[in-house]
């Protein structure tokens, strides 16, 4: 092994001598490079190879290349690249080849090699990398697409790109993304040939027997790809994706027409088809020149386009009366309403249209829970509070077991300061299953704190402790403790704390809150703090190291504390803590003793 490493280091000497001779590196730097290279070589020649060692070696060589590049730019020296950079590049490729040969399944390693080849313009090497990578990772369509794009866009070889796509489709005959990119590639090839032909015609060059195929120029190859894909891939999403690609090219009108006709014929009952056909009315209107139009005329034209879109949507919800179809219609209306416009008339018309569509969907019982939420928000933003209350009530009738819907209705009532908030809370608790009612109880007590008397709020807190599940009651205990301290003071909260401690479960924050309250008192008593810490440790002493450390700190820093108790607390902690927590506690306790914690 040592002989092999010595040989590899000797192979570096010519390039290092050149670096020193041309003034890019000093003799001291050359020696440092050799030392580092020797250390890295030893790591990758061991029996037990590690991927990290190869990555570190490659990164070092890449950094070296970058440094040489910067030094060349600084001193303006651009010669001897074959003797210097070429040697390093060859070594990096060799390292990548060894690494990818050893860890074939690591796609990120392959992609790093690809990125390196692209960065240093190693086209021949990259072609080999793609070939080897695709032989191993033929099950990943994204890699085939990457290789084909590189052939098409960098090497300008549409034949190679086509060959790669066809190979990829043998492995993935039903991959929509592969067909989309293959379709795009054929259109790019046709556009490239059209430009070439135009340039030859403008230059009046004689092409002899060579002729451009009219079928290829008109995108016939892309049409074949589309037809083949349509037979294998079902779904309107693919058709729309292909159509959006075709629209990027100005010679595909016939192809677009064919895709559109196929879309309407095969997927007439799909909401996405209708959604596309309706939105298309906006684009058709925008094709007309409006450069010399007045602002009023532009607003009028936009209103007409939107009306045409809505006419298609109205037809759609009649033909396909589903929840998804109404969702498409409402989404369109909301998008138009949220668009900025200086015309108040257009803004008002959009609002009226959106509210009307919401009402129609509601009357058809085809409005989803999420859309009811959006409708309510729109009504509140538009100051239509009475209608908002009506809609919220209707939503809870339809989704009576949905906690989110009840929350939504209650927030509307609270925001409008209605008298029937309590009645609505009672109704919500009755309908929603007890397991998920915590958000309703927290909302109720928060509202009661600012509205009702202390007695009513306290009764509500007591009721919530029995109505919620044991796990949820933990949160209510914390809120109850906090509210009692804010509203009734220390003595009341101390009695409440003792009372609440009779029923498990508890949270650590529940005890920490009481400890914090005690420490805020002018006559903070260590006796009380010990009681709270001891109660907390009974529940969390086996799983929380910080609680023990805080207890020790309290004994050390409190005026009434007893530092001699720290030893027994430490001993108890060592006995109670589980697993690795003991080691964690010991290290933190050591830091505390040395004054670093």
TrEMBL record:
Classification via Pfam families: U3_assoc_6, UTP6_C
Domain U3 small nucleolar RNA-associated protein 6 homolog C-terminal, chain residue ranges per copy: 307-577
One MF annotation (Gene Ontology) recorded for this entry: snoRNA binding
GO cellular component: Pwp2p-containing subcomplex of 90S preribosome; small-subunit processome
Subcellular location: Nucleus, Nucleolus
Single GO biological process annotation from the record: maturation of SSU-rRNA from tricistronic rRNA transcript (SSU-rRNA, 5.8S rRNA, LSU-rRNA)
Residues annotated as domain U3 small nucleolar RNA-associated protein 6 N-terminal: 9-91
UniProt record similarity statement: Belongs to the UTP6 family.
Taxonomic source organism: Calcarius ornatus
Stored InterPro entries: HAT (IPR003107), TPR-like_helical_dom_sf (IPR011990), Utp6 (IPR013949), UTP6_C (IPR056907), UTP6_N (IPR055347)
Keywords from the named record: Nucleus, Repeat, rRNA processing
Domain of life: Eukaryota
Protein name: UTP6 protein
UniProt entry tagged with the keyword rRNA processing: yes
């Amino acid at each position: 092994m040592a002989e092999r490493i010595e040989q590899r280091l000797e192979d570096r000497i010519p390039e290092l001598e050149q670096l020193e001779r041309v003034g890019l590196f000093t003799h001291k730097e050359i020696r440092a490079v050799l030392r580092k290279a020797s250390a890295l070589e030893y790591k990758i020649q061991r029996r037990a190879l590690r991927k990290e060692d190869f990555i570190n070696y490659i990164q070092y060589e890449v950094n070296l290349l970058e440094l040489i590049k910067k030094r060349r730019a600084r001193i303006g020296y651009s010669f001897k690249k074959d003797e210097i950079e070429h040697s390093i590049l060859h070594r990096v490729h060799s390292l990548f080849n060894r690494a990818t040969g050893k860890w074939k399944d690591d796609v990120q390693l392959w992609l790093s090699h690809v990125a390196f080849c692209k960065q240093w313009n190693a086209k021949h090497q990259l072609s080999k990398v793609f070939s080897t990578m695709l032989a191993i990772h033929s099950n990943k369509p994204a890699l085939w697409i990457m290789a084909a794009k590189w052939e098409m866009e960098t090497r300008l070889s549409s034949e190679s790109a086509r060959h790669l796509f066809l190979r990829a489709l043998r492995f993935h005959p039903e991959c929509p993304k592969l067909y989309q990119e293959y379709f795009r590639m054929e259109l790019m090839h046709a556009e490239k040939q059209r430009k070439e032909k135009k340039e030859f015609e403008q230059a009046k060059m004689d092409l002899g027997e060579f002729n451009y195929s009219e079928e290829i120029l008109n995108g016939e190859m892309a049409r074949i790809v589309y037809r083949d894909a349509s037979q294998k891939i079902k779904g309107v999403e693919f058709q729309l994706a292909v159509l959006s690609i075709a629209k990027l090219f100005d010679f595909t009108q016939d192809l677009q027409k064919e895709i559109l006709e196929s879309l309407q014929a095969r997927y007439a009952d799909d909401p996405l088809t209708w959604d596309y056909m309706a939105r298309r009315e906006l684009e058709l209107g925008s094709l007309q020149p409006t450069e010399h139009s007045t602002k009023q005329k532009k607003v009028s034209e936009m209103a007409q386009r939107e009306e045409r879109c809505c006419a298609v949507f109205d037809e759609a919800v009649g033909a396909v009366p589903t929840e998804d179809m109404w969702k498409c219609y409402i989404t369109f209306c909301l998008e138009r309403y949220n668009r900025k416009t200086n015309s108040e008339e257009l803004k008002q018309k959009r609002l009226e249209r959106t509210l009307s569509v919401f009402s129609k969907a509601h009357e058809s019982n085809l409005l989803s829970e999420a859309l009811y939420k959006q409708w309510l928000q729109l009504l509140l933003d538009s100051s239509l509070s009475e209608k908002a209350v009506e809609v919220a009530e209707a939503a809870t009738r339809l989704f009576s077991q949905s906690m989110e819907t009840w929350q939504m209705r209650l927030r509307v009532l609270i925001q409008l300061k209605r008298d029937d908030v309590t009645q609505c809370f009672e109704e919500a608790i009755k309908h929603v299953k007890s397991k998920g009612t915590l958000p309703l109880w927290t909302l109720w007590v928060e509202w009661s704190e600012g509205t009702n008397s202390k007695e009513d709020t306290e009764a509500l807190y007591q009721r919530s402790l029995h109505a919620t599940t044991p796990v949820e009651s933990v949160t209510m205990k914390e809120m109850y403790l906090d509210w009692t301290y804010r509203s009734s003071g220390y003595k009341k909260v101390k009695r409440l704390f003792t009372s609440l401690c009779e029923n498990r479960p508890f949270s650590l924050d529940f005890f920490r809150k009481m400890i914090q309250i005690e420490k805020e008192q002018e006559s903070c008593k260590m006796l009380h703090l010990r009681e709270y810490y001891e109660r907390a440790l009974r529940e969390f002493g086996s799983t929380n190291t910080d609680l023990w450390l805080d207890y020790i700190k309290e004994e050390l820093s409190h005026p009434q504390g007893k530092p001699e108790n720290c030893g027994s607390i430490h001993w108890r902690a060592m006995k109670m803590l589980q697993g690795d927590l003991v080691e964690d506690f010991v290290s933190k306790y050591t830091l505390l003793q040395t004054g670093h914690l």
